[in-house]
Amino acid sequence: MLGQLLLAASGSGLVRRAVSGFPLTRKVVERFVAGETAGEARAAVERLRDAGLAVTIDHLGEETRDARAAEATADAYIRLLEALRPLELGSTGEVSVKLSAVGQRLDETMALEHAREICAAAAANGSPVTLDMEDHTTVDSTLGILRKLRDDYPSTGVAIQAYLFRSEEDCRDLAAEGSRVRLVKGAYREPSSVAHQGKTAVDKAYVRCLRILMAGKGYPMVATHDDRMIAITELLADRYGRTIGDHEFQMLYGIRTDRQEALAGAGHTVRVYVPYGDDWYGYFMRRLAERPANVAFFLRALGGK
Ligand code: FDA
């Protein structure tokens, strides 16, 4: 219930202005967001690298229908990738892109061109790009753009949301040689006509999708903080003869850092999703919605405790 309210608030301009106005909000946001500038993102990436973790970096921004804002987002990614180049991160330094932030709702061709520019800058670092998945109305368009990008940049990956009814079929289509699929439970408020509702149904759907990806020939990126899903991944890896380097785990910046480091210490590739930028509101509200304990943390900090 609280989660649903927070997800609704994540799309509200009024609540955005109220929450952003609190002076202490920034202190709390820092737990989940690596900073506002490319320099701060780079510093966070260096800390994670030194702890043995790979990264995927997200320049925060939500949907835009303004061509200049879309171009500014693409430029921000290109500048970020230039700033990261001296670190020589290669495949451990990828970026994640929300197509709606580079104009997907305004003009799909424009979004594809911006995504291509970002892929080219990432390729110059030897790094791949993964497309985030947003609400269900964008899935066909995102998968269409993925196919076009993969013609020139075959390592481009995509997030698939287990809660959508369609996702088992999408996983089957994508479980082929060379494809990189990040499996997530799904973070948007979706109607019961398109998505499983409630944790049990979503967890079961996650396991079905996971089985398809682990049995397939692609590179599964298991993005979850859920110990049960991590344990099931390890069982499936045994069953399908996968070794430690042919799949990876992913978690969000600031969430279960002890678990991230323990998995990396056991030899797994663990990639941390590192968001940065000043447009943190939608991302931050989705993280609060996922876990009531995070709301308590937020309220305590607002109270100065
Ligand atoms: P679940 O929410 O069931 O949580 C399981 C356990 O993990 C909890 O009991 C708790 O212990 C811990 N936990 C989970 N969330 C926490 C939090 N916020 N704070 C503290 N502990 C927490 N979604 C999407 O729709 N499109 C996308 O492109 C992406 N991309 C993406 C990348 C990466 C790397 C990750 C890890 C996640 C995403 N997501 C996403 C978000 C995803 O859909 C989902 O909302 C969150 O990962 C939470 O789901 P869990 O699998 O962690 O399980």
From TrEMBL:
The main enzyme category here is: oxidoreductase
* Reactions accelerated catalytically: L-proline + a quinone = (S)-1-pyrroline-5-carboxylate + a quinol + H(+)
Species annotation: Nonomuraea turkmeniaca
Note the InterPro entries from the entry: FAD-linked_oxidoreductase-like (IPR029041), PRODH_bac_arc (IPR008219), Proline_DH_dom (IPR002872), Proline_oxidase (IPR015659)
Q: Quote the record's cofactor note.
A: Binds 1 FAD per subunit.
Biological process (GO), any one:
L-proline catabolic process to L-glutamate
Phylogenetic classification of the source organism: Bacteria, Bacillati, Actinomycetota, Actinomycetes, Streptosporangiales
What GO molecular functions are on record for this protein?
nucleotide binding; proline dehydrogenase activity
Q: What is this protein called?
A: proline dehydrogenase
* UniProt keyword list: FAD, Flavoprotein, Nucleotide-binding, Oxidoreductase, Proline metabolism
Q: Give the pathway listed in the UniProt entry for this protein.
A: Amino-acid degradation; L-proline degradation into L-glutamate; L-glutamate from L-proline: step 1/2
For FAD, which residues are the binding ones?
Answer: 133, 161, 185-187, 199, 224-225
Residues reported to bind substrate: 98, 286-287
Q: Which residues form the Proline dehydrogenase domain?
A: 42-297
Entry EC number(s): 1.5.5.2
Asked if the Swiss-Prot or TrEMBL record annotates the protein with the keyword Transmembrane, the reply is: no
